[in-house]
Specification:
The complex is a heterodimer of chains A (251) and B (316). By secondary structure, chain A is α/β, with parallel strands linked by helices. Chain A has helices spanning 40-47, 70-74, 92-98, 101-104, 110-122, 138-152, 168-185, 196-202, 220-223, 226-233, and strands spanning 2-11, 14-24, 29-33, 55-60, 63-64, 77-80, 156-160, 188-192, 205-210, 213-219, 238-242, 245-249. Chain A has ten helices and twelve strands. In chain A, the strands form three sheets. Chain A has a six-stranded mixed sheet, with helices on both faces. In chain A, strands 2-1-4-5 form a four-stranded antiparallel sheet, covered by helices on one side. Chain B has a single domain (3-315), classed as ABC transporter involved in vitamin B12 uptake, BtuC (Orthogonal Bundle). The longest helix of chain B has 33 residues, at 30-62. Classes of the chains: A alpha/beta (251), B mainly alpha (316).
Chain lengths: 251, 316
């Protein structure tokens, strides 16, 4: 379980995160939604120790993320940030094999390569596994990066806007893969997402943030609600139920 | 052709050039010439290797292929030290004439400067590497201006000697300094060994490196110290020549087409040795000592960079 208690963060004089407490249950997809500048990315970066916190406690299965050894955490939690601009001559397979670094320290054994192959198969990247990253489309590159986190084989997977710049087909493909990771492999996934309909259809829990504070958190169907969304986005959003999925019309 | 065979070819070229340099036109007093030439080749391999190695590591830490360790301000500090020595003691003083003493003063000042700079800048929480580079650049410029200022004040003859120091030269290398340099570089490499495995992961960028369990701040601080010591040794041995690193590492990346640091480092080191040996050979046989190797390296490097710019420009 990921547990945040009274977390604060400011950059200079600007308060980015203000007194955030939340718990993320195992085996679920939790989505962070909210307008730009709400602090979603900062929050996910703090959970994954990329950014230091100012105050409060962040623990994963009882271990403080800022005090536990980095390599130990790398076997427990992985993070994928939104901009993946690696300009190295790397093939997809080589990138995915980096996911084994916490276990192999660079010297991959047979089991490590098996995990790499599994991850490649899971993301259906077999055909392009020997292509260089700079020859791929945005969607393929995003899938290659997700395959790396799958190969890392952590219980918790954090993704910062994984659907950025993807078309509908690739976006839904990635959301389905994440859903499978949770349902078949028992992973716990936290994503930052802008498209509230994707959040509504694929996540178990939603945390709605605004101005660094949690406005509402709970089951997806409770947060996708006219009043709540009005408070977050200052927009009147019509919500309809289609096949028992809540879909928002905000166009 | 794969990067492995390319590495072997580069190694063969380096060795052949070294042999050519040592045995070419070997006439006259062989007992005198041969050891001198071997010492020069030794100095070239040491400096070339140290600069190439340090630049690869530095580019990986900063995730930037056009930054070289010269932004840490060590070259300018070296020039400042030389000028200050001439300013205070004069060009004929023992400190200037005794290369061993000069070497020790320069190298300890440069290493001390780096350590103080790192300690000071990494004390707080916001230990951003680009902030370190910015401060290094500003201090480098400051040292440069101060050097200019002092050079205006000194005697024109002494200014000539100071200016001579501005260009790297391998024409008179002290045997003992080569031995000391070998020892320092060997110790640094021994220290570096346990950080080697992190290089490939560091090249992915800070976020990915942390995600994959690299103790980022710890490793980067120590690698920066390794870089500073290597650059100090190379600069104190033959003079400021860090531009070489920018050139050879980029050529190595273009040539090797791999991300593996093992091959990038080997490739850069060999290319660097080839460039320095070839340059020095030209200096001695073609230009008959009318120029120094760093002038040639800078000339070729400049031309190569204009080529790179034009090539990149076309692909837009």
């Amino acid at each position: 379980m990921v547990d945040l208690k009274n977390v604060f963060k400011s950059f200079g004089s600007r308060q980015i995160i203000e007194d955030v407490s939340l718990k993320i249950k195992k085996g679920t997809i939790t989505s962070f939604i909210g307008p730009n500048g709400a602090g979603k990315s900062t929050l996910i970066s703090m959970i994954s120790r990329l950014i230091a916190k100012d105050d409060g406690d962040i623990t994963i299965d009882g271990k403080d993320v800022f005090k536990t050894k980095n390599n130990e955490l790398a076997k427990k939690i992985s993070i994928l940030k939104q901009s993946n601009t690696i300009n190295l001559k790397l093939t997809v397979r080589e990138l995915v094999s980096f996911g084994r670094f916490p276990y192999s320290q660079g010297k991959l054994k047979k089991e490590d390569w098996e995990k790499v192959d599994e991850a490649i198969a899971y993301l259906e990247l077999e055909e392009i596994q020997d292509k260089f990253l700079d020859q791929l489309s945005g969607g393929q590159r995003q899938r290659a990066h997700i395959a790396m986190t799958v190969a890392q084989d952590t219980e918790y997977i954090l993704l910062d806007e994984p659907l950025n710049n993807l078309d509908m087909r690739h976006a839904s493909q990635i959301m389905k893969t994440l859903r499978r990771l949770v349902d078949e492999m028992g992973k716990t996934i936290v994503i930052v997402i802008h498209d509230i309909n994707f959040a509504s259809c694929y996540s178990d829990h939603i945390v709605a943030l605004k101005d660094g504070k949690i406005v509402k958190q709970g089951r997806a169907c409770d947060v996708i609600d006219r009043c709540v969304l009005k408070e977050i986005y200052d927009m009147d959003i019509d919500i309809r139920e289609i096949d028992s999925q809540r879909i928002c019309f905000y166009y | 052709m794969g990067y492995k065979s390319k590495t072997i070819i580069l190694a063969i070229i380096s060795v052949s050039l070294a042999l050519l340099y040592v045995f070419y036109d070997l006439t006259g007093n062989i007992d005198y010439i041969l050891p001198r030439r071997i010492m020069k080749v030794g100095a070239i391999i040491l400096t070339g290797g140290a600069i190439a190695f340090a630049t690869v590591v530095f580019m990986t830490i900063t995730n930037n292929r056009i930054l070289t360790p010269s932004v840490l301000g060590l070259d300018s500090l070296y020039m400042l030290i030389q000028t200050v020595i001439i300013f205070i003691f004069g060009a004929n003083s023992i400190v200037m004439m005794n290369s061993g003493l000069n070497y020790l003063i320069s190298i300890s000042a440069m290493i001390l400067f780096s350590l103080v700079l790192y300690r000071f800048l990494f004390r707080g929480e916001g230990n951003n590497i680009y902030f370190l580079l910015l401060v290094g650049m500003i201090l480098g410029t400051f040292f440069g201006s101060f050097t200019d200022f002092m050079q205006v004040l000194i005697d024109p003859n002494e200014f000539g000697i100071a200016q001579d120091r501005m260009f790297a030269s391998i024409n008179n290398v002290d045997r003992n300094l080569v031995y000391i340099s070998i020892l320092i570089i060997a110790l640094v490499l021994l220290y570096f060994k346990r950080f080697y495995k992190y290089l490939d992961v560091l090249a992915l960028g800070k976020d990915d490196a942390i995600n994959l369990g690299v103790p980022f701040d710890y490793v980067v601080k120590r690698l920066l110290i390794v870089v500073a010591i290597l650059i100090s040794v190379a600069t104190a041995l033959i003079g400021p020549i860090t531009f070489l690193g920018l050139l050879v590492v980029n050529v190595a990346y273009e040539l090797m087409k791999t991300y593996r640091h093992f091959y990038i480092i080997l490739g850069s080191v060999f290319i660097s040795i080839i460039a320095l040996l070839g340059g020095q050979f030209l200096v001695e046989k073609v230009f008959t000592f009318s120029t120094t190797v760093s002038v040639i390296i800078n000339f070729i490097g400049g031309v190569y960079f204009i080529y790179l710019l034009l090539k990149e420009n076309k692909s837009w």
